[in-house]
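--- STAGE predict ---
source: upstream dedup step, 1 unique chain passed
mode: sequence only
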Amino acid sequence: MSDPAYTLGSPPPPSRGAPPRGFCWVFLAKLGLTALVLALLAARINLQQLGAVLANGQAGLLLAAVTPTVVLNLVKPVRWLWLLRAVLPDCNYGVAFRSALVGAGARLLLPSKVGEFGRVLDVPRLPLLTGAGLVVLDLLMEMIAACLLAVPGLLIYAGPAVAGLAVLLSTTCIVALFFPRRFLWLVSRVLHGGPRLSSRLEAARDVVRLVGRRTLLRGVAISVVLNLLRFGQLVLLLLSVGAPMTARAVVVLPVVQLADGFPFTVGGLGVREWLGAYLLPAYGIRAEAAVAAIFLQYVISNVLPGIPGWWLLLRARGQAAAGVRREGPAACRVGGRSG
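--- STAGE serialize ---
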């Protein structure tokens, strides 16, 4: 690593205390943006009809829709474990599972994908910058899968130009993952950064090299499977609220899910609901039914796993404040290997 403060094998740096003032202003701006999106959504739908749709949902299908969330939260840590083992070769599934839950808890309150970086705080002896790089790789793999699966729906709803943008975005992510040296060289030329930017880009390149292309390929493959599970869950929830499902509607659903990659509100709340309310009525699904199903998916997929994750995060912070050193499993010795 180029940054001596964050070399592999070094202990994590001490807590940085309260977040900077700039972060607080950004968070307040996100809160305002969340309120605006929810207000626009409330103006678009009939809230009484929304309540009636939620109250009359089919309990059997709702329970069946919980199953994909259980599977997702058991399988997603596998992808995270593959990344962790590039730095901590003997790390086990339990560490990855707990860390992923902490990220889910932090994601409930923090804007965009910032919460995902909370999982780094719960992995013993993982350098913060290296861990952040691994989280970025994890999110890039999800973005590739989401963009590729959304292309047919974007082609139907928005036309070739917008679908081409999704292909371009996924191609950019693929180049960044599998050809990091060329990609980061291009980024450095475009941004004209100084030595600080160059050191950060070199650190990012080193993280990608540690992981290796084989692990990245497996990660993209498992990301496609996870996204298909989410689509299946949304179909079950739409059926549970009485929404008619057509082939065109099913093809367009990945476009709604693509909003997960751009959750500019706190916890991503309101973005997918707003998109579903405007998009799905063109395919025979009432706006109220679309919002009800997407909101239920938010509760099942985000809130339910986020509750134990938030408790773990608070517990970890309490231990840090009391000066308790978390050693974690003995199987987390720092090292490095290519995937």
